[in-house]
Design goal:
By secondary structure, the chain is mainly α. It has helices at about 1-30, 35-45, 45-50, 50-70, 70-95, 110-130.
Length: about 130
């Protein structure tokens, strides 16, 4: 019984954590103060050059943050989140900017990639558990 209750608490906490991260990151982009603007500009220059596209990215992240909170939309939001994170990670995963000198010494950009891998795993857990209920 304790584990079943813990399961529910952990899943809710995971959903709220993902929502918090995506809302915060999306709002930082929306207001043009995101610390990853340079990373995005180097990996996907067209995203930063095209203000409309960048605004849509910010809105998408905010919408994903809200969507993951609403159980009805949690699975769909988590799938979109996984796709978004894979695209964001793919642009820098194998680039020299991910490492200081060489593998395995991570730069700040490399830490950005590792953080995305954890977020992907978290979104997949939400999908696995929410889709069952």
């Amino acid at each position: 019984m304790f584990h079943a209750k813990l399961h529910g608490i952990a899943l809710t906490l995971l959903r709220f954590s993902l929502a918090f991260v995506f809302l915060w990151f999306g709002l930082l982009k929306l207001f043009g103060v995101s610390p990853v603007l340079d990373v995005i500009a180097r990996a996907y220059p067209f995203m930063v050059e095209n203000k409309t596209l960048f605004l849509l990215l910010a809105i998408l992240e905010v919408a994903l943050g809200i969507g993951i909170l609403v159980r009805r939309f949690a699975v769909l939001s988590a799938w979109i989140m996984v796709g978004h994170l894979l695209l964001a990670t793919g642009g820098v995963l194998f680039s020299p900017q991910a490492f200081v000198n060489h593998f395995p010494f991570l730069s700040v950009v490399g830490e950005f990639v590792i953080k995305n891998i954890v977020l992907i795993a978290s979104a997949l857990l939400v999908i696995a558990y929410e889709a069952k209920e």
